[in-house]
Amino acid sequence: MARSRKEITSIMIGATSAVAGSLKARSVFAYVDEFEDDKPLRDLKNAAAELILVARSQDEHNRARRLGAKVLTVPAVNLTRTGRIKTAVVIAFSQRLLQPGETFVFLCGLPSEPADTLMVMSVGAEYEMFQSVDQPKLTEHIRRAVFERVFGLAIELASEGREGKPIGAMFVLGDYREVQKHCQQSIINPFKGYLERERHILDHGMAETVKEFCSIDGAFILKGNGAIMSAGTTVRPGLAGEELPRGLGSRHSAAAGITAITKSIAITISESNGTVRVWRRGQMITEIERATRSAPPSAASELD
Question: In whole angstroms, what is the distance from residue 13 CA to residue 107 CA?
Answer without folding.
Answer: 8
